Amino acid sequence: MKARLTTLVMLVGFAFLGFLGWQWWQSRLPATYDVMDYGVVDRGGGTPVSHNHFSVGDTGGPTGKPDVRITLTARKAKVRLASGTEVDAWTFNGRAPGPEIRVQRGQLVQVTLVNKDIDDGVTIHWHGVDVPNAEDGVAGVTQNAVEPGGRYVYRFRPEQVGTFWYHTHQDASKGVDKGLYGAFVIMRETPPQKEEDIALAAHTFSGHPALGTNDRLERHAVQPGVPVRLRLINTNSTPARFRLSGIEPSVVAIDGADIDPARVPPGEAIEIGGGGRYDLWFQAPAGIGAVELVGSRAGLVISPNGKGEPAAAPSRPIFDPAARRDAAPVRLGQKFDRTFELKITKKVGFLDGRPGRHWALNGKLYPRIPMFEVEKGDLVRINLVNDSSGIHPMHLHGHHFLVLTRNGKAVSPWSTDTLEMLPHERYTVAFRANNPGLWMLHCHNLEHAADGLTMHLMYAGVTTPFRAGKSAHNDPE
């Protein structure tokens, strides 16, 4: 009897080990693969559509003579911060952040990317800009990564106005961290004649938090009463918090989309999730105004003579975009064509052969996760659930979604492309499917994306000629 029990235990053990081995084998990604081959198609309750087949390559940018020509060369370089600290960085044109790009709405923009010596390869994703799909800059999805000695040309005509940024989307968790990013600002055709316009990108260089390359106070002389637009960009994966003093600012835009000016009460901080942007507007003070990056010595001081120190400020809760005014339901005028559910959890299992507790979408580990299928013209709703203790700035490429509810309650709506979801929050968002292609929807905590918190939104009939994987030298996270 004892021998039989021992044999049974051994058989169960072998069966369990066999199951684990099968799970490990099934989780391994091929050296080269199509990102569309693994996801499970979810049509969001919509009826099957007649597929009008098209390729990502068919969605290229406009032709014609460009109004703006820019060359960005990716290369390794030393970057000196304001404190004198030098860091090893990956740069555009020898700078990190890369050159600030400002264009006007409607201009034909042509950017040539050159890779001098970034061995991992590089692309440029225009974060928050609703470019044609072929210009989106995602390695293995919309293009091949540009390897050392190579080049690639992006062409698009931006129809938005606001604050955006650009960064590599090839092994982004490493490339962005090392410095492959920069500010991208789209101006109106007739910009304000008298306005101080400043873009500040928060980034942490090898443990040194900075605004631009200033890990100390940067000072600007601005005469009292002059309008100031301050564009705050968070290029980090974790939230950036800004303390305000000596000014009376209003938030006038979120993620490049205007909102009705929302005054920020004294002492109320601004928190921006990874990848997000806020525009502040205020009149330059007669005294000393300051914006400081919490947890660092970096900040911006504005005063008539360009001197002075930030004043102490009372401590209040952070600015809440959902509570800007009395919440009211949004009337979109028609029913939704498709409704999707997306729940973020953690799950024990194998991710490309790596055992651990990984991020999961709808209970599945990458790449066997949902792929949301839509058709051009659809009005789409997504119910986002963060059933985890992590913070997830969820970023949708090629579109902006309108925030409708938080935790089941109607909110003051705002348009966003990178929605910061705090632990155990639930949101309902909606967007119009008006930009055909194959688009990423992922967490912009780029370490989370590398650990599987990424998926795709696809238009019916789309295909891609590009392949991800180690042999393809394309890592789209």
Q: Brief overview, please?
A:
The chain contains 3 helices and 34 strands. The chain is mainly beta and 477 residues long.
Description:
Strand 11 and strand 12 (208-211) form a beta hairpin. 8% of the residues lie in helices and 42% in strands. The strands form seven sheets. Strands 22, 23, 25, 27, 28, 29 and 31 form a seven-stranded mixed sheet that branches. By secondary structure, the chain is mainly beta. The mean pLDDT is 92. It has three helices and 34 strands.
What distinguishing features does this structure have?
477 residues; mainly beta; seven-stranded mixed β-sheet; six-stranded mixed β-sheet; 3 helices; 34 strands
What is the residue-mean pLDDT, rounded to a whole number? 92
Helix content: under 10%
Largest sheet, in brief, is: 7 strands, mixed
**Structural class per helix/strand content?**
mainly beta
Choose one word for the global shape. globular
Straight-line distance between termini: 55 Å
Q: How big a fraction of the residues is strand?
A: 35-45%
Radius of gyration, taken over Cα atoms and rounded to an integer in Å: 24 Å
Count of DSSP H/I helices: 3
The stretches of 5 or more residues where confidence is low (pLDDT under 50) are none
Strands, count: 34
